[in-house]
Amino acid sequence: MNHVNQAALAAVFCTLLLLAADLSIAAPQLPLVTIPKLSTAPAIDGTISEAEWSAAAGPGLFRSMADGMILSQQPRLLLGYDDANFYLAARLPFTGDKPFISATRHDDAVYLDDALEVFLQPAGSDTYYQFVVNAAAVKWDGKDQSSSWNAPWDASAHIGQSFWTVEIAIPFSAIGQKTPSEGVEWRLNIAWDAQGPHPFMGTWSPITGSLHQPDKFATGIFRATAPAFQILHADLVTGRTEITGRAMTYTTP
User: Fold this and answer.
1) What number is the average pLDDT over the span 202-224?
2) How far apart, in whole angstroms, are the C-alpha atoms of residue 111 and residue 109?
3) How open is the CA angle 182-34-206, to the nearest 5 degrees?
4) pLDDT for 117-126, tens place per residue?
5) For residue 236, how many C-alpha atoms fall within 13 Å in the half-sphere facing its CB?
6) Where are the alpha helices (DSSP H) in 84-155?
7) Residue 81 pairs with which residues in a beta bridge?
8) CB atoms < 10 A from the CB of 226, how many?
9) DSSP strand E in 84-178: where?
């Protein structure tokens, strides 16, 4: 039978109302997201399948690293996990004919391209890990602020007409962790390096200056059974806030 966590869904819709009220003047709070457990591992092929990611959480919104304002263009972000991996998928718009790509080898300056950055800090750890991938699926990884650390993880990207997509799988074992226990909290952040005629850097957690501020990372709560909320569309270009989302229920025997 289907069970819906009413309190969780109420919190989701209250959050939407607050976002829609006045994003330009609202004092930024550190985000909190429930990361659902996926029953089936998504194929890391760079193409986001709705069936594979339907139970994932889709948080937002991204802010400018320069001034902390909500970005007029928003990526779509999806998060989940299973016993082996932390999963992330993103759909990122770009301007011009194609994304900017200059890095071609592992640990090149991938973050200077159109790229996505993932920061993870496990519970009880003072160490955080950074994973960066560009629109050609070239990867960079580091620990704290050291680029000498490397780990086995998977990423694949696809370039569309006005956007690019990326799918990422980071094994918990690659960062010395086991499957997170039910309800455990990690710190995390996602950053968006956007190039083109008017380059900018976006961040999910409201950080300005440097991304290397783990005390300002968002909080992710791992839940094996929880409703997943996804922000599907956010339009701030016209000056009028429009946010479209959906809540997914979970099913138990």
Assistant:
1) 95
2) 5
3) 130
4) 999 999 999 9
5) 18
6) none
7) 37, 86
8) 21
9) 85-93, 115-121, 129-134, 139-143, 154-159, 163-171
